[in-house]
User: What shape does this take?
Amino acid sequence: MENIGTKIQLRKIKIIHTVIWLFFNVVIFYLLYAVIANQIDEWIWICIGLITLEGLTLLLFKSICPITVIARRYSNSTKDNFDIYLPNWLARYNKAIYSGIVALAILILAYRLFNN
Assistant: This one.
């Protein structure tokens, strides 16, 4: 049975993980917006750099978010959203959904760069 200290730690981790997830949503959707609007500027490259760092981190941790590794110390839940405040289906398919959006943005960016 979980004690109150464990629940508090897991709640803190879930909040931090959710805030980071929201930050990367802003990054990814700004990237998508900017390439669709053909507003190629330094922010595009900053977004790509941040997304690349996130991807390298996931590669280093064998496709598991390091925050999930930390949260695992405080829960043995088998739910995909045990460590983040998201619906379970979104937590489960998060990488696939956002990888697709990023890939689309990169394709549009490549089109913009090679056709301007």
About this structure: The CA atoms of residues 77 and 83 lie 9 Å apart.
